[in-house]
Amino acid sequence: MNNEEMENVERRAYDNAVFAVGCTNDKADEYINKIYDLYFSQNKGNSIIQSKTGADFDSLFKNKKHSYISLVKSVDIGNPLNVYSINMNAEEYKFLSEYLIYGRYLIDEGKIKSIIINPAKTDAYKKLCSVIIGQQEMKDALCRLGAVFQYSKRREVYNMLKVPMHMVFAFVGPPGTAKTTASVYFASMMKEMEVLSGSTMAYVTGTQLKAKYVGQTAERVHDLFVKNDIIIIDEAYSLVNYNETEKTDNFSQEALAQLCTEVEEHSDDKLIIFAGYGGDIDDKNNKMKQFLNENPGIASRITFTVNFSSYTVDEMLKIFALLAKNADFKIEDGWQNILKPFFEKRINNPNFGNGRDARRLLEQAMSAAAIDYVLWAGDDMDIFNVSNKEEIKKLSTLSIKHIKKAIIEFEKAENAVDGNIGKQVI
Questions:
Q1: pLDDT of residue 75
Q2: What is the pTM of this model?
Q3: What CATH number has the domain spanning 313-425?
Q4: How many distinct helices (H) and strands (E) make up the chain?
């Protein structure tokens, strides 16, 4: 919860107490002063006592640190010997009780979290781990980043000096390694830990930043940052023409110039992620490296780089199994013996697509299963009969034959692509 939201919560609590007790605002402000004097007297030695809080936001307490929720959690109204009941008269104590009700309601409803959340225990991180196989280095990095920003935020509570932390990241790695998926879950982690002030998210590719006419692109990029709290930009390097014989077009130049401006202005109040090919791949295909080298204004604002690695053979098998399971398929026993040598060969191919290869292979296997199903069903299948166990098995099973057929079709498609590339080169 950011300062503005906290201020609104405290004002609501203040207004509720004024209404319930029936006192004037001047009298209420006196009560508030006394409440927080007592509160801070119980926290001597804590640097937070240097900044009081209260409800008169336009004058006495303007721009002060808010401690309302801490007060709510520290006061035991049911204890007749607490410091407040001893030092306050009946009306003052009634005002305190009414003042705390709203905060207790928000905590009970889970609308305000009363604990620091371990990044690894967020729902978003748990979901990320359930949908992304392997990539432990990336997962550990996201947890470290979450801890860093939560640590920085917590320091502010104790009036410690604020260290500028730019929320601009580069997610880099080979194709098909779940960079975009991880970006979305990381944004959800940051929101769940209340590091971000908002949750409006935009996902765009580099080419989508360009408008239809010259002069409109800068406005489009600006609006993207104004309207969103989280901006994920995939393949931003598509804005740059790396062909030495051709210059980057005016639309792309305009987009890049405005993008540099927005990143400069919003590096500490927006979560910005650049995702794309990079990391541990050859320089020819390291497009993120080329892009950042040519755009120092953006590169200088990137605080952390999260690296994604290519998958191993065992991870590819697990990815294929997970994709099949998520699509309600059962795979005939022995399928690993067929796919393992295929992936052992595939991971050394320069066109290896990691998770995308597993997805393409599953689609080819589904295609083979579909052809078998149509041949089996013939022309007399009753489409209203949904209790046919044999049909259910046909629709939900991938056989060894389907897997073998998928490999043949996959390799055929790859050879066709390689052949076309060879012809273009010649």
A1: 82
A2: 0.71
A3: 1.10.8.60
A4: 17, 7
